[in-house]
Amino acid sequence: MKGMLFVMSGPSGAGKTTIVKAVLSELEGVEFSVSYTTRPRREDEVDGVDYFFVDEKTFKSLIEKGEFLEWAEVHGNLYGTSKNFVESCLNNGINMLLDVDVKGALNIKKIFKDGVFIFVAPPSFKELKDRLVKRHTEDPNNLEKRIEDAKFELSQISKFDYLIVNTDISASVKQLESIIISEQLKISRFGEFVGKYNFYKSKDGVDL
Amino acid sequence: MKGMLFVMSGPSGAGKTTIVKAVLSELEGVEFSVSYTTRPRREDEVDGVDYFFVDEKTFKSLIEKGEFLEWAEVHGNLYGTSKNFVESCLNNGINMLLDVDVKGALNIKKIFKDGVFIFVAPPSFKELKDRLVKRHTEDPNNLEKRIEDAKFELSQISKFDYLIVNTDISASVKQLESIIISEQLKISRFGEFVGKYNFYKSKDGVDL
Prior knowledge:
CATH topology of chain A: Rossmann fold
CATH superfamily of chain A: P-loop containing nucleotide triphosphate hydrolases
Strand content of chain A: 15-25%
Largest sheet of chain A: 5 strands, parallel
Largest interface: A-B, 38 and 38 residues
Number of helices of chain A: 8
CATH class of chain A: Alpha Beta
Distance between the termini of chain A: 25 Å
Number of strands of chain A: 9
Number of domains of chain A: 1
Oligomer: homodimer
Order of helices and strands of chain A: EHEEEHEEHEHEHHEHH
CATH architecture of chain A: 3-Layer(aba) Sandwich
């Protein structure tokens, strides 16, 4: 059985990366897809774990080779998801969790129509702005751009499958876990099992 | 906002009642709908909590008054779900969890098309038989009838939304909780919120 693709998205400052990290450390049976980026590494980030940090020249050569499932410029930096990596994991039955910006998520949705797309929103727009300010990594120009971007991103919510309103981190973590667990329980995922126990309709019958 | 209806079903001996009771004691925001039955009360059951235990005459008068959302004869006993009770809870925004046999669930599905229908199956048919035998409450005739009924019931799985294969009770409890949590996060449940933050499309706009 193929793996399932879960795509977590939302505006910067909504808290998606914190939620994703917590779920990956707690929940078995789902793996993280590491993205490429040209953004400078923050102090607490590890190359190859949080992102593959590359320079712009390398990134552009990867674009030309068609290596990216999606890529986008976000706040002046480039981000990309490796197509080969994600596809080979899914083909090996591994469930994948991606953490991408909203434009990237919508691009992936065009290719993986049966992916599960989850939007993380702040409880209010004021709260989102406060979080961006408190993050201390933004210069004032960046901050303003992220706020403008967030307005656009929040207008895209209805294109997603699920919405997590991130008021409380532990509740949000439980919600993402619940989505990942329950999506695997949908009847459509059990073709073989349902057939096996469909005693009155299956041809070769019965495992009594 | 109206409450959501979750209907838990499956053959006798699959373990649905155990799972439902555990979830109701652990998870907030969902309430149990108590069914009527003419089946004799078991020692560990409480009238008005596990079932409303009534005699056949009372039950039949309730049928005539149209009091039941669904009712069915199962293994020679009558079971019914009170229509008024469920509908008034849902209209008051209360999420309801029902524990009914497979025929009853499929009847309810005709009325509540946006209900969430969950099937609990044993890991194997042999395991189901073993559980029925161990339960000690069955005389041999009942046992044989329940096994025949289970074959029919298992053939109905594909009409449900979710399947829980009950190999391990604590895993199954977590799975039912996950279904109840994640169904409430579907985008379609957030009409008002999504509109509120849809800055570029809403008319009266903006909560900045």
